[in-house]
Design a protein that fits this description.
- This protein has 324 residues and is of the alpha/beta class.
- It folds into two domains: 126 residues, NAD(P)-binding Rossmann-like Domain (Rossmann fold); 183 residues, Rossmann fold (3-Layer(aba) Sandwich), CATH 3.40.50.
- 35% of the residues lie in helices and 14% in strands.
- It contains twelve helices and twelve strands.
- The protein is globular.
- The structure holds 2-keto-D-gluconic acid (8YV).
- The site of 2-keto-D-gluconic acid has 11 residues, from loops.
Length: 324
């Protein structure tokens, strides 16, 4: 049987299915304590499956027998796609199965941040609700406002659908290319990022992390936003300059931020973002529901089985780089 290295715990039913096809070596994440054991196991394996661990070329070069990798995520930034392609190794991912759940998470951030839900819930829990809520605790409306989406991919479209159909919001977006379906279905307006930053009430970043998007939103971009703007990041922490965001929040450059991803994860409790009432912080729960994570794992297991049998589908993230 081919050896496969699993580096993230998965539901029992899917582990058993994987074990019917392969000799599975399991790790519960990769860290400084198990790194050497992981790299030793990696040297023997033909398949790799998991998520939330660095798979740069310095790690992958320790896998001389590797034939295919399968990430339990839609994001592929933890892998060196070009390195894998140079060795003609496909990287499979899970596009599509998590769109709706992740869009729900982003809208949860939009609502919690706009209506100050976490801050005010804590006020109740801590016994500080002593009189009826006054102006200094008011939030801001979501319905009818302008939502600017930077990165109108599958998840960005799902967010825009909620905003347009559910909250009667005006949708505008910037993207590498125009998206006719978003314009026809959701009355979305395509524009350059600077115009979007200057005119949006809510700015939502949903781009993948690439060399082009790293540091995309920094001090200058926050300064372009409305002082009343609410900033949402559901992409990757490194797409923004986190220090610039903290400054913008502390100095009233923007109203508030809702964040599901961070430069360093887990976000240290010492971060100023953990102490600000105008920052809502989630522990990277974009796709984190039982139903969707099972669907992602099922997709990733199918992807690996197929790839090791030579069948790489549209779920291959580096197909455009592989030898034709
Ligand atoms: C989680 C994500 O990181 O799919 C992605 O790219 O960021 C999230 O879904 C992933 O699901 C971890 O397993």
């Amino acid at each position: 049987m081919k050896k496969v290295l699993l580096y993230k715990p998965i539901p029992e039913q899917e582990l058993k299915r994987l074990q019917t096809h392969f000799d599975v070596i399991q790790f519960d994440g990769v860290n400084t304590l198990n790194q050497e054991a992981f790299l030793t196991a990696l040297s023997e394996t033909e398949g790799l499956i998991g998520a939330s661990a660095d798979m740069s070329s310095s790690v992958l070069e320790r896998a001389p027998k590797l034939k295919a990798a399968s990430t339990i995520s839609v994001g592929t930034d933890q892998y060196d796609l070009a390195y894998l392609a140079n060795r003609n190794i496909p990287l499979m991912h899970t596009p599509g199965v998590l769109n709706e759940t992740t869009a729900d998470t982003i809208f949860t951030l939009i609502m919690c941040t706009a209506r100050r839900a976490v801050e005010l819930s804590n006020m109740v829990r801590e016994g500080r609700w002593t009189k009826s809520i006054g102006e200094n605790h008011f939030g801001t409306d979501i319905h009818g406002k302008t939502l600017g989406i930077i990165g109108m991919g599958r998840i960005g479209y799902a967010i825009a659908k909620r905003a347009h159909l559910g909250f009667d919001m005006k949708i505008q977006y910037s993207n590498r290319s125009q998206k006719p379906d978003a314009e026809q279905d959701l009355n979305a307006t395509y524009m350059d990022m600077e115009s979007l930053l200057k005119t949006s009430d809510f700015v939502c970043v949903m781009t993948p992390l690439t060399p082009e998007t790293e540091g995309l939103i920094g001090k200058a971009e926050f300064a372009m936003m409305k002082k009343s703007a609410i900033f949402i990041n559901g992409s990757r922490g490194k797409v923004i300059d986190e220090s610039a965001l903290i400054d913008a929040l502390e100095n009233g450059v923007i109203r508030a931020a809702g964040l599901d991803v961070f430069d360093v994860e887990p976000l240290p409790a010492s971060s100023p973002l953990c102490k600000m009432d105008n920052a809502v912080v989630f522990p990277h729960i974009g796709s984190a529901t039982s139903e969707t994570r099972l669907a992602m794992v099922t997709c990733a297991v199918d992807n690996l089985i197929n790839a090791l049998n030579g069948d790489i589908s549209e779920n291959c993230a580096n197909l455009h780089l592989l030898e034709k």
